[in-house]
Amino acid sequence: VLHIWPELSKDFWFRGVIDAGLGVARNIDNTDYTGMIERRVICGPCFLKLKLSMKWIAQGIFKITKGDIAAWAPKLPVQKAIIYFLSPNIAEEMHTGHLRSTLIGETLARVLEYSGVKVIRRFHEGDDLDFKVHAAGLAV
User: Fold this and answer.
1) Which residues form the signal peptide (predicted)?
2) Domain ranges, ordered by start, for the chain
């Protein structure tokens, strides 16, 4: 709630972030997610914890195991998306942090493809500045 508070405070009667969190918690039962949420708790001034219903999770797993996984794919209003993510920096020593952008981008691309969106993947290779600096140093 804290992150969206500036927008909420313009259009709604909430007196603060706690009041806004309570409003969300109270009104979540009036949404399509009623069976999904088992418990909701306001934690401190900025956080709303939601506990998913084990029954809802079990029903979903049962659907998937019966071969009805397509029912889980959301129908999206977009037909094409470009996922633009960074390639690992080959000028530095390799570590797991280099894979973060690739993993997030590839996961997002696969989820969108599964939902019927045509995905175009684009990788940013970097500007090769490290190599230009090294080459300039060698040329001197």
Assistant:
1) none
2) 5-56, 73-131
Is there a contact between 86 and 124 (Cβ–Cβ < 8 Å)?
Answer: yes
CB-based contact 5:12 (threshold 8 Å): no
And the tokens for 115?
Answer: 């939902």
Q: What is the mean pLDDT of residues 121-125?
A: 78
**102: nearest Cα among 91, 114, 90:** 90
The model's pLDDT over 39-50, given as tens digits with 9 standing for 90+, comes to 877 776 667 777
Query: What predicted TM-score, i.e. pTM, was given to this entire model?
Result: 0.45
Chain-centroid distance of CA 88 in Å reads 21
**Residue 127: pLDDT above 60?**
no
d(CA 23, CA 40): 12
Q: Which residue has the tokens 């600096």?
A: 133
pLDDT at 55 over 70: yes
3-state secondary structure of 63: helix
